[in-house]
Structure formats: C-alpha cells, structure tokens
Amino acid sequence: MGKFATLFLVISLCVTLAEGLSIVGHSQRCLCDGKLYNLIPSRNIRKVEMFPQTPRCYNVEIVITMKTGKRWCLNPKAQRVRAVLGKFSMKRDFKHNY
C-alpha cells in the first residue's frame, strides 16, 4: 500500500471516529437526561434556571434547586410548571441561561 493510500485511510478513520464520538456524546451535554417532573411545591424552591436549546442538547431545560440543595428537572410543557415559572419570573431568583 502506498503512502497516499495509508494517509487517506488514517484520515478517514479519524474523521469517522470524531463523528461517532460527537453523536455518542450528544446526550451527555443535556442536564436533564432522566425523569422530568410536572409539579414541585413552589415554597420549597430556592432557584429556577432555564436553559435554551443548544447544538449539543435539543431540549429546553428547566432546572430548579430546592432549599435542601437537590436539583430537579421540570417538564417545560407542563401547565403547572409554566405557572411556577410565571411566579418566579417576577423574582430575582429566576435565571435565564442564554
């Protein structure tokens, strides 16, 4: 095999591996890969954060931090979640991560 053919195969292999890793790593960039909650008592919420879609994660993500320090992912399509967001958007502890 010539030098050109060997170089071509090595470059092709590197490109293929790089593309495969970006597809595999896609879900690792989302914060909310597990269960999405539809309702959390608002009196226990310390902070609400909203993360928009990105090239690595195609989901809009809403993450709340409870007073106990636990973090929960909320379902952005749930009507009750929208009500909680409306309540917190008037306060300073609502953070858009745009």
Description of the molecule:
There is one protein chain. By secondary structure, this protein is of the alpha+beta class. It has one domain (3-96): Beta Barrel (OB fold (Dihydrolipoamide Acetyltransferase, E2P)), CATH 2.40.50. Helices cover 34% and strands 20% of the residues. It has 2 helices and 4 strands. The protein has helices at residues 3-24, 79-89, and strands at 45-51, 61-66, 71-74, 94-96. Strands 3-2-1-4 form a 4-stranded mixed sheet, covered by helices on one side. A hairpin with a 4-residue loop joins strand 2 and strand 3. The longest helix has 22 residues, at 3-24. Mean pLDDT is 76; it is low at 22-27. This is C-X-C motif chemokine 11-1-like. Residues 1-20 form the signal peptide. It comes from Microcaecilia unicolor. One of its GO terms (molecular function) is chemokine activity.
Give the key terms:
98 residues; alpha+beta; OB fold (Dihydrolipoamide Acetyltransferase, E2P); four-stranded mixed β-sheet; 2 helices; 4 strands; 20% strand; rod-shaped
